[in-house]
Amino acid sequence: MSDEKLLYIETxxxxxxxxxxxKVAALLKGEGYTPTPDASxxxxxxxxxxxxREKAEHKVYSYLGRFRGLKRERRFLLGVGGCVAQQEGAxxxxxxxxxxxxxxxxxxxxxxxxxxxxxxxxxxxxVDFIDNETRLDLFPRVDDGGGVTRFVTVMQGCDNFCxxxxxxxxxxxxxxxxxxxxxxxxxxxxxxxxxxxTLLGQNVNSYGLKxxxxxxxxxxxxxxxxxxxxxxxxxxxxxxxxxxPELIACFAELPKLCGHIHLPAxxxxxxxxxxxxxxxxxxxxxxxxxxxxxxxxxILITGDxxxxxxxxxxxxxxxxxxxxxxVRYTDIFSFAYSPRPETAAASLPGRVTRKEATERLERxxxxxxxxxxxxxxxxxxxxxxxxxxxxxxxxxxLYGRTGGNLIVNFAADPSLVGSLVDVRxxxxxxxxxxxxxAPMQ
Length: 441
What we know:
Layout (H helix, E strand, L loop, with lengths): L4 E7 L3 H15 L3 E3 L8 E6 L4 H12 L1 H7 L3 E6 H6 L2 H5 L5 E3 L7 H9 L4 E3 L5 H5 L12 E5 L1 E2 L10 H4 L4 E2 L2 H13 L4 E5 L16 H9 L6 E5 L8 H9 L6 E3 L7 H7 L5 H14 L4 E8 L6 H14 L3 E6 L17 H24 L5 E9 L6 E5 L4 E5 L8 E9 L4 E5 L4
Parallel strand pairs: 1-2, 1-3, 3-4, 4-5, 5-6, 7-10, 10-11, 12-13, 13-14, 17-19
Antiparallel strand pairs: 8-9, 15-16, 15-18, 16-17, 18-19
């Protein structure tokens, strides 16, 4: 190892994994590791993985394969964390013999010790789930790193057991973090310059419901909204069956709560929703959407759609397309169903062929592309308030997001990073908006 130890982290999957990677970097800072964007120069490479879909899992194994040759050329440590690590455990050490350490979703707190052991040549896997009382005392927090925005974990795990979903098996059962700790972390982040926080959980709507005397999620939002200096609040993800009238009211009553919600429907057919064990009907989902739009008329809604679920007929699929048209999503994450280990859906009859599932996915994505382009075009010549987050990928523009979570690129002085500015939208693209700084009134 060189005197300066460099850490490279590759993150796959959701925002929870992004947040976990931030925690990994903070934990390993105490072990003398400095983050680097160059994997080829790193002394320690951590791959933070996702196994929610089969394709994502295969991508991880393919990525790990790239390091086999590099391991022969020079010495460095290679570790795997996240959902694939939790799912595979010590089997990963056998399957990938050039791997040094494997840590599961409940074992971030063990990482410094595991890295020290790996530096001494000891390979190890730690993937045990821990009890809730211990988990409550081990929620890692990120106290440094600066930046304009920050992810803050409010709960972990899930108790819904949707028939297709591996999350309860790799993230564990649901547990809510103590509200006082969350509020304290947000206050600290704001004191450090953060202007916007995104509250994270597999199902934030059920926050606090299993902890006697704890705040509800709506109550937590109200407490965080009262923090001076915080400009914006976001959250993800919401399970439609658990979104309460109290939470919906927050969109009307809390100006700091951004006008965007990610509300995954997954399907538009009652028959498929029942097979998925989603806990709501199409009509109940649409009623929640209508209530959200009534509370916040300008709210933008994004979602998730799975096609090719076992037993899905053409009529079931057409109901999903019609749901999309009725909701008018701003954007969606869409996937062809893939069976996941241990889940109930993996053994369901009526498997849809890969060809048919792929064709349906293309139809979903084509429809959403049309709706997204139409929605983005509707913002042209409007003035949008944008929180400036940094330099765009092009390097000659700033970028930020609207309250509705739309990315806006525009030319302006870099000193505006961290500011809320008004931007006039000049063009709409499939994935972003282009604008110009509006003159001061």
